[in-house]
Amino acid sequence: MIVEIGHFALALALGVAVVQALVPLWGVSRQDTALASVGPAAAITCFLLVALSFAALVSAYVRSDFSVETVVANSHSTQPLIYKITSVWGNHEGSMLLWVLILTLFGALVALSRNSLPMRLRAGTLAAQGLVTVAFLAFVLLTSNPFARLDPAPADGQDLNPILQDLGLAIHPPLLYVGYVGFSITYAFAVAALIDGRIDAVWARAVRPWTLLAWVFLTLGIAMGSYWAYYELGWGGWWFWDPVENASLMPWLAGTALIHSTVVMEKRDALKVWTILLAILTFSLSLLGTFIVRSGVLTSVHSFASDPQRGLFILGILVFFVGGSLALFAWRAPLLRQGGLFAPVSRESALVVNNLFIATACATVFIGTLYPLVLEMITGDKISVGPPFFNATFVPVLVPLLLVLPLGQTLAWKRGDLLGAAQRVLAAFILAILVALALIAFSRGGPVLAPLGVGLGVFLVASALFDIGERVVGRASGVQAMFSRAIGLPRSAWGTAFAHAGVGLTVIGIAASAWSSEAIGVLKQGESLSSGRYTITLDSITPRTGPNFRADVARFKLAAGDRVLAPIEASKRVYTARAMPTTEAGIHTDGLSQAYVALGEAQADGGIAVRFYDKPLILLVWLGAVVMAFGGGLSLTDRRFRLAAPRRAQPRAAIVQPAE
Amino acid sequence: MRRLFALLLLSLFSAEPLRAVQPDEILPNVALEHRAREISGGLRCLVCQNQSIDDSDAPLARDLRILVRERLVAGDSDAAVRDFVVARYGDFVLLSPPFNIRTLLLWAAPFLILALGLAYLWRRSRRLVVPAAASPLSDEERKRVDALMQDERAG
């Protein structure tokens, strides 16, 4: 019964979404305020209905209701509760429902936000959001119903794919989806602005928090996914240029460009047309990502569902929303007036250059991901585009951007002073050179580019810190004055510093991976294997039984030189329901570095094959992303977003006065 | 059907626990082994999803890894080993697609886009010159201003 309520609520939500998509626009065109204000109520109702539906599905999984098809295919009665819940979105149907849930959540948040939007903009935005909701609700109901019943119900389920039975599944997809789907709001705002034919700083200020929010979650989602792949897949890599990874990287890059271009628009009323285009493209890339992942068109380890009917449906959605919005853009964008002139050397120009490089990087990933598909369709030739291609093209595009980033960060708006900016980053630059030189001297004969990469990272971190430091210290004398200056700085200035420092940390982590080392060997009890700075000694292998798996756990002593560290446990599991083996890597975190052990096969002579890595500074890769996201979060709490409403109140007061 | 699904998953997520290179494959010659790893990292495992043979544990990937090592031991250069594998499996086996007429656009696109973008910005920055700060009046202009001012007062 609960399951049917969930299904019914979902169908009802589709009806409400149709209302949300059509009625407000009709109201605006007829100048009917009552009709135009239906949007918020519809958006909130739609969210509540989808939330009810989602809760019903969660309940079916928690109760192990094996009369529901998707529960049978993806859950098992012996699974721990947390994995019963995460199984909800560990499959195609449920993950699409989560997608729609977050989509309607964002619609409801716009409806509830007290950010004083012009009526026409709010109506248009909610209508566009409603239209996206209609499309995806129809997709779930028509092709991917998670509530389908099964008769007769089997005694037990087929278990969730063991690879997915991990805390990563609880965190990664929700974070990623909030990021992906959050960009639907910027898309909806852009479409509304195009319909309205007007766009200004008010628009930019209204859109910026949503863009930042989506970007923060997408950043965390990608970083979490990368770390999950790193420890779960067991071969020590953390980025594979897999199409599914690229699908999440593209909206992230476009979103990063968007964050920077909306700043220019908000502060200087420039780059309007480009910003609108970026807002459309960012969500279009999210849709493309959903298409790639859900249709299985570019098969990869992630696509646990592939079905041509679903693929065609999503392709239709993709063509409609991307094509429709781009057509609207081509028709209406010439109406938007360009404003805000700026000199070739200025903060604005720096941000334009930033946008060019990030957009190029994004295009590189786009072309690399889709080229093999298009080439095969046209000529029938099959080629592979893998990591070597992306390393050879993506990196050269991004490195120049990172090199000039510190300069752009200190340039003034409108008209900057290049020499002055160069002087301000000089200290950071010298520090970076010194670090690189020291590393080159220290690691003679090692990788050549790695010290330069670390130097680049140090340059980014140091210039961000020095920049904010200079603004805090300034000419202030005494700790108290400095403290009050630090408090007085806009949060967005702190956010920028943190985000850019985070980029630097990630760059250091990536560069340092050139020093990682790997050892492969066969170990018997008491035997040792060394890799880089670490040595492991096999202590014991013992069987263990988990709730739904059996495991062989190998225990290793770990030492770094004379230093004895905590022991490492790595295991091989066999999940009973699917008789499927997995490896659980053993990881010891030593400062920012990690020692990483993955088990292989038991050998005929009684030993066990072992892969053992020393991963210096590897944690910086993800820590940098977390710092970036933290910076984004800080910007989100900036005064001007919190105090948007009182600002509108001022002109009103001004109007009242003459009437006295 | 259910068995088929299980098989599909097994092939997707690799049945054997040890990932990739196994201890018995490793060449005693460290330099050769290093070259073998470099080459394997650029060859696609043909039956896997986006994995190099160095990362894969499919039997075919193992065969290819051993083949690469055999060729190296026989004295082939890196390029000769790659050519040998491409001759058997086609360009599809290379994770870094060869530069030719079919992949021209793929390789050129990133740099083309960047160059076009920079050229556009360069032209625009020359068109959009911010008006310079007001320059001081020339003597002639000053005279005309004075004349106008006097007209005003007279009028």
Structure description:
Chain A: It is found in: Cell inner membrane. Chain A folds into 4 domains: 1-165, no CATH class; 184-405, no CATH class; 417-512, no CATH class; 517-615. In chain A, strands 2-3-4-5-6 form a 5-stranded antiparallel beta sheet, with no helix packed on it. A 4-stranded antiparallel beta sheet of chain A has the order 1-9-8-7, with no helix packed on it. Chain A is α+β, with helices and mostly antiparallel strands. Chain A has 21 helices and 9 strands. Chain B is mainly α and 155 residues long. Chains A and B meet through helix 13, helix 14, strand 1, strand 6 and strand 8 of A and helix 1 and helix 5 of B.
CATH-derived topology of the largest domain in chain B? Helicase, Ruva Protein, domain 3
Oligomer: heterodimer
Helical fraction of chain B equals: 55-70%
- CATH level 1 class label of the largest domain in chain B: Mainly Alpha
Distance between the termini of chain B: 102 Å
Class based on secondary structure composition and strand pairing of chain A = alpha+beta
Subcellular location (chain A): Cell inner membrane
Main location (chain A): membrane
Pfam family, one (chain A): Cytochrom_C_asm
Domain Cytochrome c-type biogenesis protein CcmF C-terminal (chain A): 315-639
Using brief descriptors, characterize the structure shown.
heterodimer, A: 660 residues, alpha+beta, five-stranded antiparallel β-sheet, four-stranded antiparallel β-sheet, 21 helices, globular, disordered C terminus, B: 155 residues, mainly alpha, Helicase, Ruva Protein, domain 3, 2 domains, 6 helices, heme binding (chain A)
Reconstruct the topology from this structure.
The complex is a heterodimer of chains A (660) and B (155).
Chain A: H1 2-29, H2 33-36, H3 38-62, H4 69-74, H5 81-86, H6 92-112, H7 119-143, H8 167-196, H9 201-232, H10 243-268, H11 272-295, H12 308-332, H13 347-379, H14 387-410, H15 418-442, H16 449-473, H17 479-488, H18 491-512, E1 517-523, E2 528-531, E3 534-545, E4 549-560, E5 563-575, E6 580-584, E7 586-590, E8 593-602, E9 608-615, H19 619-636, H20 639-642, H21 644-656
Helix pairs in contact in A: 1-3, 1-7, 3-6, 3-7, 6-7, 6-8, 7-8, 7-12, 8-9, 8-10, 8-11, 9-10, 9-19, 10-11, 10-13, 11-12, 13-14, 14-15, 14-16, 15-16, 16-18, 18-19
Chain B: H1 2-13, H2 30-41, H3 59-73, H4 78-89, H5 104-127, H6 139-154
Family (chain A): Belongs to the CcmF/CycK/Ccl1/NrfE/CcsA family.
Transmembrane segments (chain A): 6-28, 40-62, 96-112, 124-142, 175-195, 207-229, 249-266, 273-292, 312-331, 352-374, 394-413, 425-442, 448-466, 492-515, 617-637
Pfam families (chain A): CcmF_C, Cytochrom_C_asm
